[in-house]
Specification:
- The chain is elongated, with a radius of gyration of 24 Å.
- By secondary structure, the chain is of the alpha+beta class.
- The chain is built from three helices and four strands.
- The model has no long low-confidence stretch (mean pLDDT 74).
- The chain folds into three domains: 40 residues, no CATH class; 36 residues, no CATH class; 35 residues, no CATH class.
């Protein structure tokens, strides 16, 4: 990330922004290029392994389901999940891995959470 000067208002802002936050001039105008660099979150090796394992489990489940149906059996219904438990588990994981950001609005003092 680099700070660049806006050609319109001379305010410094990030080259990752789409436009100047003060005057709205596009970043491409101030940088002289036609591309804007977009910062993307890189997945950790844990996230990649986790998604790969989840995909394998889902594929295995559906292949068993198809095989049971093909052989003329009755495939079991999908299990019912307790939504509250799932939400609690997801929030716990997010807090554990510090992916929750707490911000306080300085104007009204309200607290909001960005996930």
């Amino acid at each position: 990330m680099a700070l660049i000067n806006c050609k319109e208002c001379e305010k410094k802002f990030s080259n990752l922004a789409y436009a100047c936050p003060k005057c709205g001039a596009p970043t491409t105008y101030s940088t002289g290029t036609n591309e804007v660099t977009i910062q993307t979150d890189t997945l950790s090796s844990f996230d990649l392994i986790e998604s790969e394992i989840c995909n394998k489990i889902i594929d295995y489940y559906w292949s068993l389901h198809r095989e049971i149906t093909r052989l003329g059996g009755v495939a079991p219904e999908s299990p019912e999940f307790n939504e509250e438990e799932i939400i609690r588990a997801v929030i716990t994981r997010m807090v554990h891995f510090k992916r929750m950001f707490l911000t306080i609005n300085r104007f009204d003092g309200l607290c909001c959470t960005k996930i």
